[in-house]
Amino acid sequence: MKIPQLLLCFLLFICSSNYAIAKKKSHKHHPLLFLPVFKDEITQQYVAQIYQRTPLVPVNLTVDLGGRFLWMDCENDYISSSYKNVPCGSRPCKLSGSQGCYGSSCPVPPRPGCNNYTCSHIPYNPIKRSSTDGELAQDVVALWSITTTTNRNNVSKMILSSTSGVMFNCPGDFLLEKLANGVKGMAGLGIGYTGLPSQLARAFHLPRKFAICLSGNTKSNGVILFGERRSYYASNEVLTSYTPLLKNPVSTAGAYFPGEPSVEYFIGVEKILVNGKIVPIDNKLLAINKTNGVGGTKISTVVPYGTMESSIYKAFKYEFVKAIAKVPIAKPVTPFELCFNLSNSDTLKGLVIPQVSLVLLGEHNNSTTWDLPMNNFMASPTINDSSDLLCLGFLDGGENAETSIVLGGMQIEENLLEFDLVKKRMGFKSVYMSSDLVSCSNKFR
Ligand SMILES: *[C@@H]1O[C@H](CO)[C@@H](O)[C@H](O)[C@H]1NC(C)=O
Ligand SMILES: *[C@@H]1O[C@H](CO)[C@@H](O)[C@H](O)[C@H]1NC(C)=O
Ligand SMILES: *[C@@H]1O[C@H](CO)[C@@H](O)[C@H](O)[C@H]1NC(C)=O
Ligand SMILES: *[C@@H]1O[C@H](CO)[C@@H](O)[C@H](O)[C@H]1NC(C)=O
Ligand SMILES: *[C@@H]1O[C@H](CO)[C@@H](O)[C@H](O)[C@H]1NC(C)=O
Ligand SMILES: *[C@@H]1O[C@H](CO)[C@@H](O)[C@H](O)[C@H]1NC(C)=O
Ligand SMILES: *[C@@H]1O[C@H](CO)[C@@H](O)[C@H](O)[C@H]1NC(C)=O
Ligand SMILES: *[C@@H]1O[C@H](CO)[C@@H](O)[C@H](O)[C@H]1NC(C)=O
């Protein structure tokens, strides 16, 4: 049966009053929400600014791609008429996977962060490596939105609010330790029900999809986009390389409820290539052990440089040094472990950096190759005003590394990564190697 257009609009208005204003303007297009992301110079953390509460205030948050949820300090200066605690036993509490409840220990009057009979969950700061418990709550959140009208070139930008709450967690302010200056919490973009992508998808009626494009430059911003990316991008910027997102049935957070799965983004690395040569690796390390969640490869925004479990790192370093044989090795500069001395101009002339590639699980039981541009694995630290050093931007993750390979900030900067939580896959495209995406920052100015 065909529903008359007018009735459909009416139904939509009722069902989705939470963004009725935007809906009326352009009911053919989902809005695309975006968060500008800055790289903090001192901590190298990626900091996003979100709007929250009633009245709206800007809140800076460190981006944690594999975080369970949004969490922030509610003890200091949290003023909002739309703050609501999530009651124990409620549907959102159950769906959050919480197995905790605060009973009756909150003093009168109740305040954000302490309400009797409230669902509790476990926020984690992976930089401090510390977990605690905190009240689960919800409040209004607003983001910049881009709306393309029927005229493709007419892009309007405005702040769009959810009138339904977006869930977050309220631990004490001690959990902010080690976060960038001015930051009030972390924006968890994890896969699960409480992750920001799923929360925003519900609150703004978006597809459960998001894309990140992080800038390597502390002077210019990158971006996180929520919703259907193609409604904004030109059609020639279609992604063609995809790799499945793999399930890790055991949480990789610092503390978790029994049976809780990991909400981090795991992908399948099958091989590492240096100049096309396979680095010999114990294949067991590349797989996720379903009993204890150990092993595999994940993507993280909370480590500036990628890590490899010790035996993988040694083998990789060996092949890498062999391939770059002519360049003298320099004394390492913290945090790097392998640096090359480029001060000799003869060295520079003949310098060819080896090609590093990751062979990933592809779609349809086929492999796909991610060729890393040099900027995604070679760092040039500037020490004592001289910049004749080049260091490998992968670090030794240790013998007991929980996750065998971690791709960190350096590896994913200036890449467009699209995470599709419905199709359970990640699309990737290097901005360095692409003619149409000039850089993450100038693309989304
Ligand atoms: C929480 O419950 C306790 C015990 O019933 C009560 O003394 C206290 O006043 C309550 N706090 C709030 C904020 O209602
Ligand atoms: C874009 O759309 C807005 C409102 O929808 C209109 O006021 C404006 O003139 C349009 N701009 C162009 C360049 O078409
Ligand atoms: C939040 O981040 C923005 C962008 O980096 C910055 O301009 C602003 O000063 C920050 N606010 C606070 C309170 O740190
Ligand atoms: C996975 O971990 C369990 C528990 O630590 C261990 O007994 C088992 O041998 C591991 N499996 C593999 C394939 O390494
Ligand atoms: C690089 O090599 C030059 C000599 O060729 C030496 O003077 C300089 O100290 C070296 N730099 C480092 C950081 O090892
Ligand atoms: C994928 O390919 C490998 C060998 O290329 C084969 O052994 C395996 O059975 C295939 N898996 C599926 C699901 O088709
Ligand atoms: C598998 O990948 C190869 C090389 O990338 C390609 O030529 C082939 O068509 C792919 N096969 C399928 C079934 O996608
Ligand atoms: C940088 O300069 C300081 C003091 O001048 C010196 O102690 C240090 O060794 C230098 N570092 C390098 C890598 O040359």
From TrEMBL:
Signal peptide segment: 1-22
PROSITE patterns, per database record: PEPTIDASE_A1
InterPro entries registered for this protein in UniProt: Aspartic_peptidase_A1, PEPTIDASE_A1, Peptidase_aspartic_dom_sf, TAXi_C, TAXi_N
Domain of life of the native organism: Eukaryota
UniProt key word Isomerase: no
Record-annotated Peptidase A1 domain positions: 46-429
SUPFAM superfamilies recorded: Acid proteases
A molecular function (GO) term: aspartic-type endopeptidase activity
Signal recorded as keyword: yes
Keywords linked to the UniProt accession: Signal
GO BP term (any one): proteolysis
Gene3D superfamilies xref list: Acid Proteases
The family this protein is said to belong to: Belongs to the peptidase A1 family.
Protein name: Peptidase A1 domain-containing protein
Lineage: Eukaryota, Viridiplantae, Streptophyta, Embryophyta, Tracheophyta
